[in-house]
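Reading a protein record of the kind used here takes only a little practice. The record below shows the convention in full:
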Amino acid sequence: MTKSHAIPELAGFRAPAPLLVTDVSVLDPASGSVTTHQDILIENGLVAQVGSDLRAEADVLLGAGLLALPGLWDMHVHTFDASTLPTFLARGVTGVRQMAGAPMHTQWRDRLRQTDWLAPRMVFGSPIVDGPRPSRPGSIAVTTPDEGRAAVARCIADGGEFVKVYSQLPADAYAAIAQECVARGIPFAGHVPFEVPIGTAARSGQRSIEHLDGLALATSASEQEIRRELSTLDSRDPAGMFNRLSQLNHRAAMTHDPAPLEALIRVFLDHGTWHVPTLAVLHAKATIGTPAFPLAPYLKDIEPALRPAWERVASWTPDDATKNREQAVFQHSLHLTKELHRAGIPLLAGTDTFVPGHSLHDELALLVRAGLTPLDALRAATSAPARFLGVADRFGAIAPGFNADLLLLHANPLDDITSTRSIHAVVLGGGPISVE
C-alpha cells in the first residue's frame, strides 16, 4: 500500500486573498487534454473552481494566451542551503524529494509547517544508510543486520519519511533493513547495493531505484564477472573506486543481453517498483570536458559550498577513453529508460545535479530524447510524483480540491518539451510568484 506523505498543505507563500486566474488553457496531465478559455478560482490555497467566465471577489491574474500546468516536482535532489530554495520556485519546481537527510532538514520541516516560507514543498529522506565505510559524509554506517535494523529505527525517530539505502550495504544488512522497513510501514529507496541483484531489491519492496542503478549489470552477459570485481572496490580510495566503477559500468553496457531485461520488467511490474533515471546527472557525467556539458551556465545557482567542486568538474578535461566510456554508458541509459517506459514501468523525473530548478527542465527534455512523449515526460514530473507519494487526490492536477500549485507558460510543452522553461508566473499554495 502506498504511504501518504505528510506534505504541507500550505507550504511556502500563503495567499492573503482569493485569486482568480483568467482565460488560460488548462493542461491535464492525466488525460493529455488542453481546455481553452478557462478561469481558475483559488481560495485558501486550493483550487475552488475551474470553468468559463467565473466571477468572484478576488485578486486577478490575467492569463490570456497562457497555458496552466500543475507545478513540477524534482524527485531526486540534494539541497542543504536554504538560500537556493527560491530558485526552485522561480524555475517552476514547486516540490522536491530530498534524497539525503541532514540536520538542517529538521528545521526546514518545521519551518514549512509553521511559517510563511517561500520554498518548494518537500519530502525528506533519512540520512544515507551505507556499508561500513560510507563514501558520502553524514551517512549511517551499517555492517550487520542488527545495525541495519537499528538504523531504520533511528531514521524513523529522526523524522525521515523514507529510508535512503546506498551502494556498499552488505547483502544481509540490506535484507534486514528491507524487512524492518516493511514491518514498520516506512518506504525505502535509493541505490541498489553492489551485493544485491536488482530483482532482489524489487522483491524486497524497494519503492524506487535511482539512476537505473543495477539495471545495466543485471542485463549484462558478463554479470557474474563484473559482480566479482565490484566486491573488490575500496571506498578508502574514492577516486580509484569511482574510476573502476565507471569502467565496470561501461563493460555492463557493452555486454547487454535483452532477455534478462524482459524478466526484470515482470518483477518491477509485479512489485510496483518505480525508477528515477536521473538522466540529467548521467548526461553531465557523459559530457564533462566537452561543449555539450550542460551545467556550465548553472554554476552560479549551485549552492556556494558545492560550487567549487562543480567548477573543477566543469574545467576538467578527461582523456578520450574516459569520454567515450561515459558517453556509451549514457546512451545505454537512454535505451534502458526507453525500454522501461515501453513496458509500462512508472518513471519519475529527478535530477541529482545539485542545480536548483534548471536541471529539471533538462531532465524532461532528456526523457523525451530517450523516447517518451512530451506528455509522458510531463507526467513524470506532475501526476506520477503525486501517485508515488500517495497524494494523487491533492496534487498533480488543476482541479477543484487540489492544492493550487501551478505554472503559467507562454507555450505548450506538448508541442515542444522545452516550453516548460517559458514561465510567465508560478503559483504556490494559491500565492502568485512573479517570474517575469
Q: What stands out?
A: The two ends are 42 Å apart (CA to CA). DSSP finds 15 helices and 17 strands in the chain.
